[in-house]
Amino acid sequence: MLSIRGLAFASVSLLSLSAPAFAQDADETEKDEAGIVVVGTLIRGTEVTGSQTLSVDAAEIAEKGAVSTNELLGLVPQISNAFNGRFEVDPRGVGTGLSINRPNLRNLPGANSASGGTALVLVDGFRMAPMGVNQSSIDVDVIPSAVIAGLDIVTDGGSSLYGADAVSGVINFRTLRKFEGIKVDLNYGKGDTIKGYSYWDGALTVGKSWATGNAYISASYAKRESVLNNETTWYDSKIYNAAGVGTFTGTQCDTPQQTVSRWFRFGAGSSQFTNNPAAPGAGTFSLGTGCDALGEATYSPEVKRYNVYAAVTQEFGENIDLRVTGYWAKRDTILPIVPRGFTSAGSGVTGGTLVTMFPAAAATTPGTTFQVNEGVGFRFTPNAAYVNTPNTVGFETWGVTPELTVKMGSDWQVKTTAHYGRSDNYQSFPSTNTVLAQCYITGCAASGTTPAIAAGQLNPLNVAAASAAVITDITDFTSAQQTKQSMFVARVVADGPIFPLPGGDAKVAVGLEYQSNKAQSRLNAGRFGAINNAAYQSYSRNSKSAFGEVSLPVMPFLDLSASLRYDDYSDFGSTTNPSLGAAFKPTEWLKIYGHWSKSFNAPTAVDGLGIATGRFALNQYVAGSSDPTRRPSDPAPANDLGFGTHAMILDGTKKGTRPQTSESWAVGFEVTPNSGLNIGAQFYSIDFKDILAAVNPQNLTTYTTNPELYYYNTGPTTFPATYAALLAQLTNASQISITSDAVAFVVDRRTSNIGTAKIEGVDFHIDWRHDYDFGQVSAGISGNKQTKALTNFGVAVNELPFQPAITAAFYTGVKVGGFSTRVTVNYTGKFTDPNPNNAGTSGLRVNPFTVINLAMGYEFGEGTGALEGTSLRLGIDNLFEEKPQTTRRGSASFIPYTNWTIGRVFKIGASKKF
């Protein structure tokens, strides 16, 4: 292995890689007549003033051979949730309603708590219809890679031009302006580290040009196989004690697990018993050996994706151009789950009723324990009728965008753009009908439309003996949700010169925009398909906007810009956001620039629905306790009152949320001593306020910093009324069967404006390219180092130690004729693990994570006969099988590895244009 690694580094100067290039002047000033959309400005013929632009071109995109468009975002170190790791939602997040993937530019906190995004995604400079079950943003997988001409990112706030969601920056995908001919693209990837991993995709693009226009359509399909946790070597499902002994802790297993509660008698009185684990020998225990409760869950989901994209352009004379684009996309994400099971009801005994329910307890000597048999945990897999139906999440979306450009006199232009789109988003999480399961064990009387059920049809100790009808009846149950969203937006922009200045013409852009968003959602916990009979909740909102931008080339060496936007929303009011930029070029090879702006992320129509749901978990899920009957330890004061064994968790969004807001500034420089070398850096600062987020109950400090979000069961006097009031706020209240006496406490995790953050850091880059007689050689580095990350969600926390010290992409390579070969070295720096190991030790060092990717390609040029128009690609991701660092955990609440990878993957691809 060392010799292979040495050989790779020895030959690295002969290679190049896909990495973001920082846009240079020649790239940014391409003529608008060619259809180039310069993100970050609405004025033709100008570049962004005072901000940096990161760009990825079509060649880099093709050579990446990405599984999805989302994976392309991993080329950019500034997109923290995609670079050098997982480019899609963690499967654990999917279970809480995260149905789409959104880029987190600048690593802003609470990125998955708000329904909207803090990085605005555009296509050809314009919005698309939002998506998501409990979200309202863009998943970039709707944009097929076959039609992407480039990717540009402005890393500064952009609300002064684009309105909501541009808090951390704007990501713009440029599509092909025209295409002629027929092109076929095919890609295939196969895992080496994880043998079961594979994917393939194919695309067909057909286009035709005529004297005054062009039309093309592209259709594609992609499929990726799933990976389970136990198919990796770094996912450890065991829980370890302080001595390092690991055991499986699953209590719903193929082999039934009997549970017992042991009561310690601390006095002579009949009620002087406690099952608090703090008492000697007391607590709830499983008599079995436990089983793997996580290994068969999803590490990386199966994905099926369909895309269609079309564009038509037509010139009407010399002054009128019309372009219409349309898309349709459907993606289904399938997540295998641990086989379903059930735990039969326990005794229901409390300290005060122990002797009454179990008279033998009266003979217990003070200072000893009395044991009560409780429920039995089991899985349904031993029964031949059981089908382990996976979780499914998906969307189907379409939209159309017409754009009419009218060229006026004196180089003025009016561009009118509109978009209408819809999305249908859905999810289904199969579970167990717990009421029926218990009825088949102990029997139930007839109730309403439900007939009487005889006891003994399901034996927890012999599940295989149950009839197929019983198993099917119990497992025909799922928690489903469906959300439909639509958006209409229309914008008119006029831009042109207003007067001359020493550095060129002063230019201005002014415009108006109208946007209407609608959302409707329904959810149901019941039999498969029952959601189709549920009613929708609906919400709609609109906004009216006016904006303006001015570009002032004051001197040949000094450019200034300013923009201002006013947005008036029908539900929460108005907001005004300005931006100022400056660029100073004292010499041809040096540019110093800076900007200041305000931005916001508005509550969405999905937020307006105010959907809130309740779910239950044992206390150990919430507090990391070693015993499920123990309440979380509240340090001031102690609240282990002994009521209930479950925690109720409220999810969703509170009504009346306000916009998240930010104020940001940045200053940077670029040095270009020659046409092939670009060196630069930028310092940025973001003051992020009113952050939409949810309290984290695994952080014990939140019990005291946010006490208003915790409702403790203090007994039957007051808690039942509190519990009933909370239930009344839940959409799924009628489907919750646990009574207040079984609830230890309630955690309100509904999203609200509870946080603030101050984020600062430095972007840096070096790009070098040089042409030799044999070809072109390139090399460089781009990356980010965060220097401040202070958050406050009830208490001020310095997050900086718990984030990678630096993220960077190194690259180098060569192109010779039709041959090119590229290497990327993606580096994620060290950081501190905030979660404890099995010994309860936090603050452990996580070592740097370095992944090397290799890509090679060959393009057959003119005169190559039947191969003309053919390009071939070969790639190896994670060339040296870098694996995540693992840590033995003492709680299932924390994953046992840091960083993320699929391991080594071999990739091949081919394209043919006719």
TrEMBL record:
Keywords: Cell outer membrane, Membrane, Receptor, Signal, TonB box, Transmembrane, Transmembrane beta strand, Transport. It is found in: Cell outer membrane. Residues 369-879 form the TonB-dependent receptor-like beta-barrel domain. It holds the Pfam family TonB_dep_Rec_b-barrel. It is a multi-pass membrane protein. InterPro entries: Beta-barrel_TonB, Beta-barrel_TonB_sf, Plug_dom, Plug_dom_sf, TonB-dep_rcpt-like. Residues 52-170 form the TonB-dependent receptor plug domain. SUPFAM superfamilies: Porins. Residues 1-23 form the signal peptide. PANTHER family: PTHR47234, TONB-DEPENDENT RECEPTOR (PTHR47234:SF2). Belongs to the TonB-dependent receptor family. This is TonB-dependent receptor. The lineage of its organism: Bacteria, Pseudomonadati, Pseudomonadota, Alphaproteobacteria, Sphingomonadales.
